Amino acid sequence: MVNLLEKLNYTRTTLIQGKDTEDREEGKDLELVKLPEDITLAGFTPLMLNPQDPCYVEKTEDMEVAQVCLRISKILFFGQVFLCGLETPVLKLQKSETGVSEYVSVVEASSTSLPSSPPTQSDSELMVESYSEGEEEPISTLRRLPSCGNVPDDTTAPVAAVEIRSLIERKEELERRQRKQDRHRQRVQLTLTKTSILHVYRC
């Protein structure tokens, strides 16, 4: 990006550095260029340690164009000055065989130095909901079973399939019991209601 922005053809003279406004008599005709993202980046370390002079633009200029120019300037500063000036540089200016100078990354990518990442969970992992016997409310237990691509050998797959079928059958059985209890409760409630009505009628 730094190489592309450096070669970008745009109006660089639009911005006026703060130090260049001291000798301008028409300083009152200048407007400070502010970026909306500056508030968000107020705590960004490179900007805190490397404060830059404010930039102004003449009031007759387009403020949006000036803001774009200022953004490009800040990105170039971050790449050419900050990243190249670190104790362990991230970028450096290198001259190619064709004579063109470009900024190249000097960060060594090493997969061995990176900490091992935790195993990712496949979308195909099955969440099986089991129910505890003897309780009206089911106790949800998420049991993760390995996906097809992570099955260690041929013997674990049949065991997992049998376990799944057993849990599903257990769930269906408990659901049937629950429905049966609900129907019985409704019949008892209906009987009690009729008995109460008859008792009141006889009285």
Automatic annotation (TrEMBL):
What are the boundaries of the signal sequence? none
| GO BP field | nuclear-transcribed mRNA catabolic process, nonsense-mediated decay
- Name the SUPFAM superfamilies for this protein: TPR-like (SSF48452)
Q: What InterPro entries would the database entry show?
A: Est1/Ebs1-like, TPR-like_helical_dom_sf
Protein name (record)? Telomerase-binding protein est1a
CC terms in the record's Gene Ontology section: telomerase holoenzyme complex
Q: Which residue intervals are annotated with compositional bias (Low complexity) in the record?
A: 109-124
Q: Where is this region: Disordered?
A: 109-150
A GO molecular function held by the record: telomerase RNA binding
Top-level taxonomy = Eukaryota, Metazoa, Ecdysozoa, Arthropoda, Hexapoda
